[in-house]
């Protein structure tokens, strides 16, 4: 993972609608959800949903698969894990990792 990919993915997730869609797909697991189910859950117009899904797909965070006439969307877990890893891989590398006790309880 490099900084350009991470920044594009974080930018895509910086929109409340896209973040909500992504969290829904992460919760759905490997089976994913149909576009219709996502639309029902989030109560957004099809064109709006399509726009937001396109951004998530273009950044590699979501995949789509056609099953007959149904489009199934899935969180792409390797991309999610790479992004999270990129954010925490060097945690406290310059100072050692001492977390204040008030942060460990949260």
Features:
106 residues; alpha+beta; Arc Repressor Mutant, subunit A; three-stranded antiparallel sheet; 6 helices; ArsR-like_HTH; DNA binding
Structure description:
The chain is α+β, with helices and mostly antiparallel strands and 106 residues long. It has six helices and three strands. The chain has a single domain, classed as Arc Repressor Mutant, subunit A, CATH 1.10.10.10. It has a three-stranded antiparallel beta sheet with strand order 1-3-2. α2 (16-28) packs across α4 (46-58). The protein is elongated, with a radius of gyration of 16 Å. The protein starts with a helix and ends with a helix. 15% of the residues are buried. The mean pLDDT is 91.
Provide the β-strand percentage band: 5-15%
| CATH level-4 homologous superfamily | Winged helix-like DNA-binding domain superfamily/Winged helix DNA-binding domain
CATH class: Mainly Alpha
Low-confidence stretches: none
The run of helices and strands is HHEHHEEHH
Tell me how many strands there are. Answer: 3
Task: Record the strand order, biggest sheet.
Answer: 1-3-2
The main pleated sheet reads as: 3 strands, antiparallel
Radius of gyration: 16 Å
Summary, kept brief:
By secondary structure, this protein is an alpha+beta fold. Helices cover 58% and strands 13% of the residues.
Question: What is the secondary structure topology, with strand pairs?
Answer:
Elements: H1 3-13, H2 16-28, E1 33-34, H3 35-42, H4 46-58, E2 62-67, E3 70-75, H5 77-88, H6 101-104
Antiparallel strand pairs: 1-3, 2-3
